[in-house]
Amino acid sequence: xxxxxxxxxxxxxxxxxxxxxxxxxxxxxxxxxxxxxxxxxxxxxxxxxxxxxxxxxxxxxxxxxxxxxxxxxxxxxxxxxxxxxxxxxxxxxxxxxxxxxxxxxxxxxxxxxxxxxxxxxxxxxxxxxxxxxxxxxxxxxxxxxxxxxxxxxxxxxxxxxxxxxxxxxxxxxxxxxxxxxxxxxxxxxxxxxxxxxxxxxxxxxxxxxxxxxxxxxxxxxxxxxxxxxxxxxxxxxxxxxxxxxxxxxxxxxxxxxxxxxxxxxxxxxxxxxxxxxxxxxxxxxxxxxxxxxxxxxxxxxxxxxxxxxxxxxxxxxxxxxxxxxxxxxxxxxxxxxxxxxxxxxxxxxxxxxxxxxxxxxxxxxxxxxxxxxxxxxxxxxxxxxxxxxxxxxxxxxxxxxxxxxxxxxxxxxxxxxxxxxxxxxxxxxxxxxxxxxxxxxxxxxxxxxxxxxxxxxxxxxxxxxxxxxxxxxxxxxxxxxxxxxxxxxxxxxxxxxxxxxxxxxxxxxxxxxxxxxxxxxxxxxxxxxxxxxxxxxxxxxxxxxxxxxxxxxxxxxxxxxxxxxxxxxxxxxxxxxxxxxxxxxxxxxxxxxxxxxxxxxxxxxxxxxxxxxxxxxxxxxxxxxxxxxxxxxxxxxxxxxxxxxxxxxxxxxxxxxxxxxxxxxxxxxxxxxxxxxxxxxxxxxxxxxxxxxxxxxxxxxxxxxxxxxxxxxxxxxxxxxxxxxxxxxxxxxxxxxxxxxxxxxxxxxxxxxxxxxxxxxxxxxxxxxxxxxxxxxxxxxxxxxxxxxxxxxxxxxxxxxxxxxxxxxxxxxxxxxxxxxxxxxxxxxxxxxxxxxxxxxxxxxxxxxxxxxx
Length: 854
Ligand code: 26W
Description:
Elements: H1 2-5, H2 25-40, H3 49-78, E1 82-86, E2 90-93, H4 96-103, H5 106-115, H6 120-124, E3 130-132, H7 136-150, E4 155-160, E5 165-172, E6 175-181, E7 193-194, E8 200-204, E9 207-213, E10 215-221, E11 224-236, E12 243-253, H8 267-278, H9 295-319, H10 326-329, E13 330-335, H11 342-353, H12 358-368, E14 369-372, E15 383-385, H13 386-392, H14 394-414, H15 419-425, E16 428-429, E17 432-434, H16 435-441, E18 445-448, H17 451-461, H18 463-468, E19 473-475, H19 482-488, H20 491-501, H21 522-547, E20 556-561, H22 570-586, E21 595-600, H23 608-625, E22 634-639, H24 644-653, E23 656-659, H25 671-677, E24 681-684, H26 690-697, E25 703-704, H27 709-718, H28 723-729, H29 731-739, H30 753-760, H31 768-787, H32 789-801, H33 808-819, H34 834-840
Parallel strand pairs: 1-4, 1-13, 4-12, 13-14, 14-18, 18-19, 20-21, 20-23, 21-22, 23-24, 24-25
Antiparallel strand pairs: 2-3, 5-6, 7-11, 8-11, 9-10, 11-12, 15-17, 16-17
Helix pairs in contact: 2-3, 2-5, 3-4, 4-19, 7-33, 9-11, 11-12, 11-14, 13-14, 21-24, 21-32, 22-23, 22-29, 22-31, 28-29
Bound molecules: ligand 26W.
């Protein structure tokens, strides 16, 4: 689908022009002083760093505000199709620098502040990360917001304004401890606009009765209203004066319903109610892999969906008289199943509030909604108990019930008598509501996030749905924003690239391919190496300050940063390090390039084994870092409280990117793309987007190992394999596995028993032992390659050169053209014609190899 769409549209010149076309250094400097005065009543000398940060953010926001107003005026006039991206997570990280870059005033700002004796970087560090997400899914949503704004399309996010984001991780004695992430210390977020006038009532509980007056009406009564108050966070387009919004909903008490004295409610009870209701949006669930049937989570999901859809339809009706135009003017995207109640809520609004009949409402609903799946892990698939839904959302449950009845009837017509198939596809089965089934039935398009992932969906998890409606299914490989992950977070590399090929790549990331011929230019490769060294020094400084550990900046910086999960196999990495350590202990003179292994990531608080993995990494780090016998050839670090800002520091400084999930388990991965774009080389399995990265960069410029997805799935079908065979035949493995429990580590002998048992007693579900030998071999190849620095730098450059495909701009233009069918011209993400693209991208023909599972 990528091939035909990206060249189809003419270039799109945004016609929005306004401030800050030409902001001078002195204007900005003076405005900053004024901002500091008005916000804090302070002069420069008396203000703290935090106050200076707030003043700069406030000033930046005032510039954004003008553009926001202009954008909205223009949109009201043009009435373009709007897309709403519904997601329970948006992992924004910090916004100040990104906003300055996107406004095109970062350099002016650096100069203005330096005239006042202030370093911009020191202010940037004051901003709290907005950590409203667990990991990949939330960060992807944030990247798409950036792409949508940069490409000038009317696309908005809808999410929740959690009072506390993903927990703050502290490591004590090697263990993870969780603390509340109090990111809204001052109660407000510098970037948001609170919009109480646009609040929406969301109904919970109560009963439904029918009223027949010629036409059946459903009357919902005795419910409890929770007010959803929107806070809009502006999303700034890249140098196009355009601002979209991320609307975050916060739960508040309906003051009219519960004023003191009214309804016999005591003042104390009001406070109690207020607390109970407002706690709805207090916390982000800290789990990205396990479905848990917690009622608060279901409440959050409905709250997000109901507030967003009511507000979308309200705005639509203010501008349009004909409801039937809804799918032409609005696209609503469901980011994983968490907002899939949108199917039933849209039906409710269309039937109960807008008085449409079922068939018409259903047609509009399906034509408006689309759904992305982000995981095939069976334990992550959401299913809500029928009685919970029925009690909490009685009207919504009635609608789901009806959707299910009709859907099953339809299936019966296609597969008469095939009960097993119908049961496997039903929306309600075994007293549970299957959210993915609801999302598939109620959407016009369903997509996976990497080619192999989509294939696996079609062949396994969603096979029956695919057979039934093959045209609904498509793939859209994930992407990341080059503006944050290269231009902003790696300014030295960005400048080097711009010097070499011009700045076109910022808007047309496939232009990066023009770097490829420079892989033969030794002088350029040396410049590339010095940029990496600069970034490594910066990270080393942070490590020294934060963790008191000195690392060798000439060692290989090998990073494994992501949520801690068995399928992501941090333990396989640990096993390899244990193996290297063993080799060095046996032979301290062993000639290997020195390595610094960097880990970062959070474990879900209830995920016992993942938390033990953190303890294992830290225990190994203590042992290795304090062993003088190995002459500093190995260092291991676990960086505390991994978040977006840490990723921005680690990725530009890394030589190697660990993407070693058990094949078939990682839907896509997006960290892999960020590393690639920053010139790190991937060591990885043929899983998720790694496959497409290999296609893009060529097999010589990536270190691939391990079982293929097909092999893994075949083992699963057969019930696994016998790990003892490997344990007994490979002494390296036996040594390491025994070390987990034989007193090698100075911990209780049962400390890592669960890891030992998972490998041997419980069949090594994630194939660590099976993939170990080929992982070690790939690491050996990697070490050999690193010893030839010229070759290494050339490989690194080719990774950067071929990373343009993984820009979120490309992903987003696929969504916009093929799924949301936007009516605006969709801007190009790539300027070259297909044949030119193939020429500058020898590894990746635009009609590249398809991933097909047999
Ligand atoms: C029910 C609890 C729950 C919560 C979140 C289950 C599953 C999730 C997400 C699907 C987890 C997630 O973040 N998935 C990741 O999505 C990324 C963006 O598409 C992919 O790159 C990752 O491979 C995928 O794990």
